[in-house]
């Protein structure tokens, strides 16, 4: 099973490419990539090397979600408080602003996306968001789904919340925003052995059979954490 960890998120928060982290860990960029994607066992030795190189506590390397609280400015990481910061939250009406992307993600063969445009900010109830995730709101995006291959779980025109801090396979059978050779979509994923991932649809008639891909071929942009649809 793919192991989720926070190495990539901490590296990106510092603005480092993989070769830079590899140099600091005395290893190769390919090894760093395998560690980030969970394709190599994250032993105590590797955890300690990554923590020293990134300048974070050892425990934060494998604590789910810890990297999502790192300052976007790239400053030194500090553990998140019990009440996480929000993005433009309104104390008056109990809502928080979420960025809505001007794109529709395919729930079929995939959508070719040349550019992601920030359409607008939309407001979601803070209580509802906190029931779904502890991720800071600046890491959440709203998109729309198109197609019927994920029915009945997701339907065309659903407003779907994506936690973009989850860029590794963290949930068995979770639904993720993926990019497979440039084709973006919302699909269910599960680990399938060493360096392999199964992509599947909830509606087998519309979406077809499950298929395996190399983890290196797949880019995960986030995990779907909630949906809202109009009656």
From TrEMBL:
GO terms for biological process: proteolysis. Transmembrane segments: none annotated. One of its GO terms (molecular function) is serine-type endopeptidase activity. One of its GO terms (cellular component) is membrane. It holds the Pfam family HTH_31. InterPro entries: Cro/C1-type_HTH, Lambda_DNA-bd_dom_sf, LexA-like, LexA/Signal_pep-like_sf, Pept_S26A_signal_pept_1_Ser-AS, Peptidase_S24_S26A/B/C. Keywords: DNA-binding, Hydrolase, Protease, Transcription, Transcription regulation. Residues 7-61 form the HTH cro/C1-type domain. The keyword RNA-binding does not apply. The keyword Transcription regulation applies. It comes from the Bacteria. SUPFAM superfamilies: lambda repressor-like DNA-binding domains (SSF47413), LexA/Signal peptidase (SSF51306). This is Phage repressor.
